[in-house]
Protein: Glycerophosphodiester phosphodiesterase
Organism: Oceanobacillus locisalsi
Amino acid sequence: MTSIIAHRGASHYAPENSIPAFELAHEMKADGIETDVQLTKDNIPVLFHDESLKRIFGINGWINQYTLLELKQLDMGKSFHEKFAGTSIVTLEEFLVWVKDKPLTLHLELKNNKMAHKNLEKITYNLIAQHQLLDKTYFSTFSDASVSCLAGFQEIAHIGWLTSRQRRDLLSYALSIGATAIHIKHTLLRQRLVKEAKKNGIPVRVYTVNSSRLLHRCFSYNVDSIFTNVPDQAFVIRKDIYR
Ligand code: G3P
Ligand code: MG
């Protein structure tokens, strides 16, 4: 059965990558949570999608130009809705503590394709190992080099190569750089590709799947997982299809 992964939490209903978005995803019975990991100026892994602070915090600058203490002073809730005012950025460690006893898988996307975050793989890996959560962690990244770096860690079982670009050798390329799964943009979704991947034991995960039409398509192709901002709607449709 296709698993439903809440993309940046239940981000249609609460500020992306925030504790309220994660709480909601859990309440909506998502199977897992996808979130983006970057490093602050003082090398602390935090959950944040953009490299720039403009969209979420309304200020100039980049995530790696601010210390955690500085970022924690900023409000990332009120740009979404007044009722979330006071929501602050979440560290990876806070998220791990929150998720630890919940029946959720963790999909950690290392955001290092546009901005180089030195040692992001190692820092993230160490923290997850320290919290004994490696068995339910799925790593992913758009960076080919980072996929290969993750493949060097023996204990990491799930490495998704994220891509939005069409190419004939998509599956073999993913394997050649060390990925164990493909995480494709929904525009690349073809039943033929899903079948071929399944035949070769390669999980297919699709982002970002929000419309009813796409949700139906993904469930009917039986992809391994979907990343969605609306886990509640996905849950209803999946229930209907697998009835
Ligand atoms: O991990 C799936 C998806 O999150 C990749 O794209 O830009 O939403 O992080 P983006
Ligand atoms: Mg992401």
Observations:
- The chain has one domain: 3-241.
- The mean pLDDT is 96.
